[in-house]
Amino acid sequence: MSLLATLLIAYLPGALAYRLPIFGRDQRAALDAGERVFWQVLLSLAWTLAVALALAAAGEYQFERVVVTNGVICLLLGLIGRGSLLYRGTAARPSWSVLLPIALVAFGLVQYFPSSEYVIGGKDPGTYINQGIQFAQRGALVVRDPVVAGLPGPHREFFFPRHEREEYDALRFMGFFIVNLARGEVVGQFPHLFPASIAVGYGLNGLTGARDAVGWWTILALLGVYFLGARLIGPVAAFAGALLLALHPIVVWFARYPNSEIVMAAMGFAALLALARSQQDGTGSFALIAGALTGLMLFLRIDMLLLMVAVVAAVVLAAIADRRPIPRGFVLALLVVGVPGWQYLTTTMAPYAVQLTNFLDMVPRLLKIGMPVVAVLTLAVLFRYRDRYGNRVRQLAPVLLALVVLAAAAYAWWLRGPGPEGAPASLTDYNAYAFRTFGRLYLAPLGVLLALAGFVLVNRRDFWRDPAFLLTFAGFSLFLFYKLQIVPVHFWMGRRFLAFILPGALLLAAAAALAPLGQPRRWRIARGVVGTALLIMLGQRYLAVSMPLMHHVEYAGVIPALERLAAQFGDRDLVIVESRDAGSDMHTFAVPLAYIYARRVLVLPNARPDKAALRSFLEFARTHYDRIWFLGGGGTDLLSRHIGAVPIYEQQVRVPEYETTPWTVLPSSVRRKDFDYSLYQLTLDPAPAEAFTVDVGVRDDLYLLRFYAKEQTEGRTVRWTGPRSLISVPGLRGGETDLILELHDGGRPIARGATPARVEVLFDDVSLGTIDVAPGFREYRLALPPELVQRAASRDEPAQITLLSTTWMPMKFLGGTDDRELGVMLDRIRIR
Q1: Pick from 371, 429, 389, 427: which is nearest to 663 by CA?
Q2: Whether the predicted pLDDT of 125 surpasses 70
Q3: Domain ranges for the chain
Q4: What is the pLDDT of residue 520?
Q5: CA distances from 808 to 65, 88, 371, 750 (A)
Q6: Rounded to an integer, what is the distance from CA 350 to the centroid of its chain?
Q7: Beta bridge partners of 718
Q8: Cβ(416)–Cβ(433) under 8 Å?
Q9: What was the pLDDT predicted at 425?
Q10: Which pLDDT score is estimated for 84?
Q11: Which of 674-689 are b and which e, b meaning 16 or more Cβ less than 10 Å from the residue's Cβ?
């Protein structure tokens, strides 16, 4: 059944449609055997995802319904085509070049799996995975969240304070918007095409299939780049460019790291190839394919509008230069798919689409209004008088594009720099140096020279063979190197280059090194030898950076840990998770607990929630749930005289995490990420404790706030204080006299200039004194004023001890990357 479902999802619909004897079947059959298979797979996936989106838009998606729908379509196509579906010798026989795409597929199968275990929330990869699995489990684009919908009004406002935004009411989790708070309707942050493929993968092979979706998309992207390149610059040069791409660290990283840019590369290069096959090669059916794929990408990313602009411009320019009508099939398919796509973006995905408006607000008026108007008017006039200006356009368009790209590259490499800080149009350093960063760290200076040379070469000789590809490459380069619009850390910022800039640059670099130029044989051999040597040098550089990534699975082990944690909770339990500002990443566990493992989960709005509102909610919750849990690891001021917690379970999960580095240097090593968490069962009106004692680092999450993560040293569990750290003390009786803190200066390098360790201690904002903390763990005793203790004992809110510490930064004094502002180490707290 699994094999049949896979065939119905990923091969049979496209294979049968491709073989139908209509719209130039003989021309399609004449294509290389490898490209024919590529189209059959890609068309099947595009159809499958369109069906999945249509079902989900109606709230009726189920994996089985997609399989059945595809089965019915295949049956109809078979009945329509019958014996004519067989090529009967008219198809081109496989040539030696079919081995090249097979090699790319084999490389991807070996290197791009297993995928990362990035299923936790907080960042884009986890959002994609959880959004896709919600797509699969709930069967809708906009999901009704029963936990949100089941909250009475006051409690709903407590957990989900409203945002000052028109596009959505509040945040459910990071990456999930509540678009109707009263009905509990939630939509994921991203358009649903990539999540739909994750949902299909989930239907095929559970969570593993969902994670592996990005790897399969990467293989399709490599094939799309290769087949477009093979048509334009020849199979050998195209294979060299695609192989460099396959080895590149950005691709190796993002092939296992969920992202929609790699999907855009796969579908975008396929759309560009289909358009070239249609308009330049005269294969009519590909006009429909190009238009449909371009429109479908509106369900993928907002920046595909740039691709649409480039493609439309290429269609119009080619019509001007060739004096041929604009292909109606392309326009028809683009409208049929694109109009619903635009409506989807502006309605269902309004919280996402607003980023386009935000970006345009930062663009100077001349650029965002004047230049488009001039461009549209110019193309309209040229098209109207194409008999007069067609030859001139054919001569000048490639030259002008090459001059623009070369001038922009020279300016960005040698002249562009950040503007004065605070100026209205000032550039940040990472935006100003974006092209240099890409050239030096990702492409390498040799790669930049080869890519620019290849652009000039291909532009001069073959612009009119594929104007859409060259315009798309130039447009994305000019647009993204102007403003990256992303957090400037690696490999995160590498996403901006993934869809078109890096693949295009490597294809063009391979063209400069190996593409046939028509020179005499001896010069071809010499150029081939030199070009191959240069490409091998590039490949060795890429491979050196990629090698550690090929043996790394991001967050390996986090899925079993989540499964163990989810097993602690029943279907009628409620889990309250500490807030994002609590100083840990436990809020990232809330997303998969709710949206993969179907547990009932709420996240606190902040690390110091209103105790009266929380108590009121707990009184409501204990009548609707069997047990109420709290999951924390950073520090939350939660307890009071009426709210208690019983520690049940604690765990430390250690997973590999590749280092994150600033934009000036590439990451190169694997580090460890620790998730230290404790699980408590919340109670109301607990019995008073005998005395207040906290062994720091052991189930201390409900007493400490603004401390750093738990550590172990000298056989003790400790936490570092920050500049201002807080201790919550519930349940005082009124007779306590002493506060005892066990502290250590942490080996502070005073000899190198660090400030001596000193801590001022406050009780309910009244200073108890200042402690000069010495090396080694020692007890420091401070007297508690009786009137302050009695006042604290008479109220519901806990007393608050504040530690104001002098700090030092390990990175500054000892080197390394630890940029924490550390105070002192705290091992134990006692009040007597």
Answers
A1: 429
A2: yes
A3: 100-114+195-550, 562-687, 692-832
A4: 66
A5: 60, 78, 52, 10
A6: 19
A7: 711
A8: yes
A9: 56
A10: 85
A11: bbbbbbbebeeebeee
Is residue 231 within 8 Å of residue 280, measured between CB atoms? no
The pLDDT, as a whole number, for residue 519 is 63
Query: What fold, for 692-832?
Result: Jelly Rolls (2.60.120)
Q: Is 19 helix (H, G, I), strand (E, B) or coil?
A: helix
* Identity at 532, one-letter amino acid code: T
Distance between CA atoms of 268 and 271, rounded to whole angstroms?
5
801, 793 contact by CB (below 8 A): no
Pairing label, strands 766-772, 758-763:
antiparallel
184 pLDDT tier (thresholds 50, 70, 90): very high
CA 660 from centre of chain:
14
Task: Provide the pLDDT confidence category of residue 378 given band limits of 50, 70 and 90.
Answer: confident
Asked if residues 718 and 825 have their Cβ atoms less than 8 Å apart, the reply is yes
Bridge partners of 187, per DSSP, are 142, 177
Structure tokens at 130: 């959880």
Q: Per-residue pLDDT averaged across 32-48, rounded?
A: 97
Q: Residue 342, Cβ neighbours under 10 Å: how many? A: 13
Let me know: does 826 contact 695? Beta carbons within 8 Å. Answer: no
Largest CA distance in the chain: 100
Q: Is 731 left (phi over 0), alpha (psi -120 to 50) or beta?
A: left
Taking the C-alpha atoms of residue 456 and residue 452, their distance in angstroms, rounded to an integer, is 6
Q: Are 554 and 656 in contact (CB under 8 A)?
A: yes
Confidence at residue 385, expressed as pLDDT on a 0 to 100 scale: 83
Q: What share of the chain is helix, strand, coil (3-state, %, to 5)?
A: 55, 15, 30
DSSP 436-475: HHIIIIII-HHHHHHHHHHHHHHHHHHGGG-HHHHHHHHH
What sign does the CA torsion over 734, 738, 740, 745 have? positive
Q: What is the pTM assigned to this prediction? A: 0.93
Q: Facing residues of 173 across strands?
A: 176
According to DSSP, the residues that pair with 629 across neighbouring strands are 575, 681
| Nearest CA-CA partner of 48 in 61, 58, 59 | 61
pLDDT at 98 exceeding the cut of 90? yes
User: Which of 145, 282, 131 shows the shortest CA–CA distance to 197?
Assistant: 131
| pLDDT at residue 366, as a whole number | 64
Helices (H), 282-327: 285-296, 304-322
Instruction: List, in sequence order, every beta strand (DSSP E) within 716-823.
Output: 716-729, 738-744, 758-763, 766-772, 778-783, 799-805
Q: 3-class SS at 113?
A: coil
pLDDT per residue as tens digits for the range 152-168: 988 999 999 887 777 88
815's tokens: 């080197």
Confidence band for 25, pLDDT divided at 50, 70 and 90: confident
How far is residue 466's CA from residue 271's CA, in Å, rounded to a whole number? 12
Q: What is the DSSP letter of 756?
A: P
Could you tell me the pLDDT band of residue 1, with boundaries at 50, 70 and 90? Answer: low
Alpha-carbon distance of 298 to 624, in angstroms, equals 42
Residue 131, strand partner residues: none
- Which letter, b or e, does each residue of 25-43 get, where b requires 16 or more Cβ atoms within 10 Å of its Cβ? beebbebbbbbbbbbbbbb
Helices (H), 558-628: 558-566, 587-595, 611-621
User: Which one-letter DSSP state was computed for residue 784?
Assistant: P
Question: 284 falls in which pLDDT band (50, 70, 90)?
Answer: confident
- In tens, the pLDDT along 643-670 reads 999 999 888 899 999 999 999 999 989 9
Paired tokens of 234: 């020849």
Q: Which residue has the tokens 């919750």?
A: 621
Arithmetic mean of pLDDT, 335-356: 91
